[in-house]
């Protein structure tokens, strides 16, 4: 194992219901890491993009936040596990998201949490090499032609247990078809379309294409329920 303890920049840590993808409805601990250079114009977590030393706070200050801010706390895997216990979280499913969590080596975190009985899922754009435990459930949400200029990696597409693609227009479906041809996923990978920002026309399009292709619909349930 890597002898150097990995430090993780944590924007948020909370317990809720997974609102997206295959595990929709599952109680889960969300660990949101700070930093993302991809730049999706419609991103719903833009406060996680920049990592500023000025915004570094203590773990207790990070936990006490009542709104979405760029404040983050630096924590090790062992400190995170301790916080899970301190917060009396019940969930055994841990979703690592961000920001772009694949910018970090998540193996130490995965090993520590799996040893304590947790199951991990990562939400990633598929633009960074994945450093994960073998058992981590990988949700790749491909980002094509975004301002940051990052490319979706074929190895991420192959590792994905699920491909969860944000859509609003037909051109997005065409771009996904092209990606699936260039970078084929595993035969058993689940494919889901996620309407961008609950827009009615995006939702109609996603429903139509899911029925035609026998794909899943992922609607960001938490936004309909007004929960985190
Ligand atoms: C905020 S991202 C963080 C993880 C990683 N950077 C990624 O993009 O997968 C978490 C999920 O939210 C999705 N997402 C972000 N903004 C959205 C929006 N406005 N509407 C629908 N899905 C959105 C992303 O595509 C991704 O599946
Ligand atoms: N409830 C809930 N489910 C989610 N699934 C993926 C999320 C994310 O931001 O990655 C998310 C989120 O922010 N909240
Ligand atoms: S890759 Fe994820 S966190 Fe980064 S801008 Fe896009 S949706 Fe937001
Ligand atoms: Mg979210």
Structural descriptors:
binds magnesium ion; TIM Barrel; binds iron/sulfur cluster; binds the ligand Nc1nc2[nH]cc(C(=O)O)c2c(=O)[nH]1; 228 residues; binds S-adenosylmethionine; alpha/beta; 7 helices
Order of helices and strands: EEHEHEHEEHEHEHEH
Radius of gyration: 17 Å
Low-confidence stretches: none
CATH level-two architecture: Alpha-Beta Barrel
Query: Which cofactors or ions or other ligands sit in this model?
Result: S-adenosylmethionine, the ligand Nc1nc2[nH]cc(C(=O)O)c2c(=O)[nH]1, iron/sulfur cluster, magnesium ion
Report the sheet with the most strands, covering strand number, pairing sense and barrel closure.
9 strands, mixed
- Tell me roughly what share of residues is in helical segments: 25-40%
Overall mean pLDDT score?
98
The largest sheet has its strands arranged as 3-1-2-4-5-6-7-8-9
Domain module tally:
1
The backbone outline, from C-alpha atoms, is: globular
For this structure, what is the CATH homologous superfamily? Aldolase class I
Number of helices: 7
How would you describe what is shown here?
With 228 residues, this protein is of the alpha/beta class. It has a single domain, classed as Aldolase class I (TIM Barrel). The protein is 27% helix and 21% strand. It is built from seven helices and nine strands, in the order E-E-H-E-H-E-H-E-E-H-E-H-E-H-E-H. It has helices at 59-63, 77-86, 107-115, 154-159, 170-182, 200-213, 221-225; strands at residues 8-17, 27-33, 73-75, 93-97, 119-124, 137-140, 162-167, 190-195, 216-217. It has a nine-stranded mixed β-sheet. Helix 2 crosses helix 3. The longest helix has 14 residues, at 200-213. The chain is globular and about 45 Å long. The termini are far apart. Magnesium ion (MG) is lined by residues 44-45. This is 7-carboxy-7-deazaguanine synthase. It comes from Pseudidiomarina piscicola.
